[in-house]
Each structure stands twice: as C-alpha cells, then as structure tokens.
Specification:
The protein is an alpha/beta fold. It contains 15 helices and 15 strands. The structure holds S-adenosylmethionine and iron/sulfur cluster (SF4). The site of S-adenosylmethionine has 15 residues, from strand 4 and strand 5.
Length: 375
C-alpha cells in the first residue's frame, strides 16, 4: 500500500505535553503551503507506485487551514498521482476549529475521515494540558461531524496524567462510548524534555503518575473498549469492525509513503528520509532547489529491526515465514532464539507461526521489542 502524509506545522496555542513539530507564529503559513505544493511536484517519482490509497493531513493543526489551501494540495495530488477510488483521506482537526460549514466543505473536497484531538472530556484536564477547547466544545465537535455525515471518525484521548483519577478516566471512556465513534487513539501521557511538562518536571513541579495507577488506567481502557466491541489492534488504537486507520496501518505494515512539509518522514522500501523541521530552512531550501532532508539507506539489520518494531505494535504481529522470506534464515533463527525467553511469560502469544504481544505485553512493548532486536 502507498500513502501520502502532509505535515501542517502550525498551531494556535502550545499544549503543555506536545513535542511534535509546530510553530504558533502563523506568519510563514502561506509560504510553507506553497512549498509543500512544490515539494509534491518535485517528488512525484519518489514512490515506486503512483497509486495512492491513503492521504493524511497531520500536524500541528491541519484544521487551521482554509478549504482553499487544503483543496489546492489535494488537486495537486489528483493531478500527479492516481488516487484510488476508495482512498482514505484524513484530516486531523482540533475541536474548536470545527463548524458545520467547515465540515460540509471538507466533505465536498473529498476528506472522508476525521481525527479529532479531544484529549479529555473534562475541563480541569483540558486546562492542565493548556488545550484551546472546552469539554462541551469537544462533545459538540463530534456531534457536528456526525450531522455533516462523517462516519469514519477517530478521537484522540490521553490518559496517565498524574492528577487523573481512575474514576475520571473511566468517565472519559464512557463519554467516548456514548458518542458512537468507530475509532479511538488513546495515548499514555509521555513527559518529553522539550515541552512545558518537561520543564515542570525538571523544576520538581511535576511528578509522573505511579506505575500501578498507570496500569489501572490501561486496564480500564482495555475493559471498556472490549466490552463495547472495539478491537485493540495496535498499542494505542482501537476500532469497531474493520474501521482501522488505513494510513497508520500502512506504516505499521511497512508500506511505502511520502511525507511532505517540514519534519515529515518518507519511506520507499529502500531508504528513509526526513525533512528539516525548521520552517524557514524548509522554505529557503525548496525555493532555491537546495536539499531540505536527511536520508538513510537501510541495512538488513535495520530493516529487520523496523519490521519487529512495527509489526509487534499490532495485533496481527510478526510472522516466521515472512521474516524468513524478507530477511533470510539468519534473522529468523535469532528471532526464535530470543523468543525462548518469553516461553512461559504472559506477554507474548505464539500461534500458527504468528507472534504477537498480549495485552500485558503491549503495556511494556518498548522493553520487549528492544530485546528482540538484532544488535
Ligand atoms: C500530533 S498531535 C495532532 C493532533 C491535533 N493537533 C490536536 O492536538 O488535536 C496527535 C496526538 O498525539 C497525542 N500526543 C501528542 N503528544 C503527546 C504526549 N506527549 N503524550 C501523549 N500523547 C500525546 C495527542 O493525543 C494528539 O492528539
Ligand atoms: S497537541 Fe496538537 S494542537 Fe497541541 S501543540 Fe501538539 S499539535 Fe498543536
């Protein structure tokens, strides 16, 4: 499968936890958008296939963009690629950007999936995170999306906040369930050094959640989603029926993708590359035909490690035959040898030559995956 990712590196406000690439000064917005268009045209031959199954506007805050700016990019994609009839076309949206008019316009230009960054349905949590919206706006944004006819909707929530009680987290989950949305991305808070929370932590003003509480949040997440028919198909992702995120699943299955815009990553099966995350550098380089990315050719070891890292995040898991076919016997033998350590532990499932993490394993996935790497 092949996808296109477009990174919109602008936000109206700094959320306390976020270390994605964005700028709250919007003065370079038009220039960046022009350059993304130019980058797209310059790189039409980057992907081995011209047929695109997924397009994803991520950020930053793509819903900061006017319909005109979004459709200019989409039209360029339609002009230079073959977009599959059933392509999934997602826009990440912040609740306070969502109006009924904007939603109808998004539909009319072909956006067919929304990923709404709600984070919490509780006003105290939202203030703590420095979000732009209230809980009422969050709920209303989902209702409006339904009203405009969007069925394929994801909601992002964050748990594991130091002051989030189990009861409040369960209420968040119940509100999510009541909104009848087919997809949930629920992320455990990660306190990153270059964020406001990272600063508070260094100053001793923030203590991270206790591991037992964090495990209890995770347990509630699994229980509530399971009881309501959601599949836990990736560490942080849950969906009903077949409503997987096609775009993200393509990353986890090591499909090809081109990433456009500052800080975007690309992978074409041979190499990985990533654009500069300085907006002004990106603009200057694109306008003067200079290089704006770093590139890395992948060794067999790195390709194998990438395979383990991405596949074990999902419920589909890794497969012995596929490993042998893609990387050869040497890597399969190593993998099987390392797996022996987990034989009697409740963290890994092995059945019919498929290896996947159990729910317990997913909670400590980073540690397990690292131990299975080729080093
Ligand atoms: C790149 S953000 C973009 C979403 C959109 N701009 C918004 O805020 O609504 C994607 C998601 O990552 C999650 N996220 C970002 N930083 C995080 C962190 N430090 N810990 C946990 N989740 C985080 C949030 O749930 C966020 O909605
Ligand atoms: S969470 Fe979203 S809105 Fe907040 S700073 Fe990060 S990208 Fe911007």
């Amino acid at each position: 499968m092949t996808g296109i990712y477009i990174h919109i590196p602008f936000c109206k406000k700094v959320c306390n936890y976020c270390d994605f690439h964005f700028s709250v000064s919007l003065k370079l917005k038009d220039k960046v958008m022009e350059c993304i268009g130019k980058e797209l045209v310059d790189r039409v031959d980057y992907l081995p296939s011209k047929t695109i199954e997924t397009i994803y506007f991520g950020g930053g805050t793509p819903s900061i963009l006017s319909i005109k700016k979004l459709s200019t990019i989409l039209n360029l994609i339609y002009k230079h690629f073959i977009v599959s009839e059933h392509a999934e076309i997602t826009l990440e949206a912040n609740p306070d950007d969502i109006t009924i008019e904007y939603l109808y316009d998004l539909k009319s230009i072909g956006i067919n999936r929304l990923s709404i960054g709600i984070q919490s349905f509780n006003d105290d949590d939202l203030v703590w995170m420095n979000r732009r919206h209230t809980a009422a706006e969050a709920i209303n944004s989902v209702k409006l999306s339904h009203e405009a006819g969007f069925e394929n909707i994801n909601i992002d929530l964050i748990y594991g906040l130091p002051n989030l009680t189990l009861e409040r987290w369960k209420q968040n989950l119940e509100t999510f369930i009541s909104l009848q949305v087919p997809h949930l991305s629920a992320y455990h808070l990660s306190v990153e050094p270059k964020t406001v929370l990272g600063y508070y932590k260094r100053k001793g003003k923030l203590t991270e959640i206790d591991e037992n509480d964090s495990l209890a949040h995770y347990g509630a997440l699994l229980d509530v989603t399971k009881a309501n028919g959601y599949k836990h198909y990736e560490i942080s992702n849950f969906c009903t029926n077949e409503n997987f995120s096609k775009h993200n699943t393509n990353y986890w299955k090591q499909g090809h993708y081109i990433g456009l815009g500052p800080s975007a990553h690309s992978y074409n099966g041979i190499s990985r590359q990533w654009n500069t995350s300085v907006n002004s550098q990106y603009i200057k380089a694109i306008e003067t035909n200079q290089s704006y990315f770093d590139i890395e050719q992948l060794t067999d070891d790195e390709r194998f490690n990438d395979y383990i890292l991405t596949h074990l995040r999902t419920s589909w898991g890794a497969n012995f035959e596929e490993i042998c076919m893609l990387f050869g016997d040497k890597y399969l033998t190593h993998f099987k040898q390392e797996l022996k350590k987990y034989k009697d532990l409740p963290t890994i499932n092995i059945s019919n030559d498929y290896v996947s993490l159990t729910d317990k394993g997913m909670f400590v996935s980073d540690k397990i995956i690292e131990e299975l790497f080729w080093v």
